[in-house]
Amino acid sequence: MFITTSYLMPHQPLSRIYRNLNYEIHYMMSFIGGCLEIVSFMFLYKALIGYMTSNMIFGIAALAQGGMDFESYYHIAIILIWMLLAALHPLLANRYQARLTSPWQGYAIAMSINCLLLLAFMLLGAALMRHGQLGDKPTVAVMPLVTLGLVFMYIQNFVIKHGGTRQPTATSVVTSVYVLMMSRLSSLFAGQRTRRERVVLFHEGMHYLLVIGHFFIGALITALLSRQMGFYSLLPALLALLLFTLRIWVRHGRYRALADPGRV
């Protein structure tokens, strides 16, 4: 599902920062990932719904305390839902093969679905908060909201991983991204390297820095807005995703027009 061929666009006016639209997709997804992760951390009992390692640690710690209530299994349930999504994805992809007419259509479809998921996540979260369903401890009532967020993050991470950049990351920001950034930048000053090798290392290091930076900015903006707006602090992320998705659909249409002039 959403199988997309990598397609690197030529340099754009913002090429000094965003080398092409594929990289812009990567950074936009990182920004939105930061928005959603900070909300899930603050309002969904530290459920970082894009990071299964943290949920495993929380789950193990809860189980080790000997509790038998829902709180003890909450983070384990998140991991199980994520594993289910990972299992269903290839089955659905094999059953419903998408006939993409441009390299951009897969991204456009995935982002369009995520627009709906993010809207539903925001509205449902606000409704649960308004009716007092988000108490001190997680309950079964929050699982539909968590599931929406998990599906959103799964699609987003898939888009990032297959986004056509030369240095994809599997998730928005993970430990490996920090390590890769520092190793690439520090390698600039290590050993005998040609100018071309240094330029490549610099661009790779800056790419990982931009991934982290966009995630940080998204999380910071949303955290500040959440003080007054709660789940509606995701409105900037939703607007950004809607506008960017529209841009991808426009690029898809232009690609089809160039590939088949007879349609125009």
Automatic annotation (TrEMBL):
Q: Which UniProt keywords apply?
A: Membrane, Transmembrane, Transmembrane helix
- Which InterPro entries does this one have? DUF1275 (IPR010699)
Question: What Pfam families has UniProt attached to this entry?
Answer: DUF1275
Q: Which positions, given as ranges, span the membrane? A: 21-42, 73-92, 104-128, 140-160, 206-225, 231-250
> What protein name does the entry list?
DUF1275 domain-containing protein
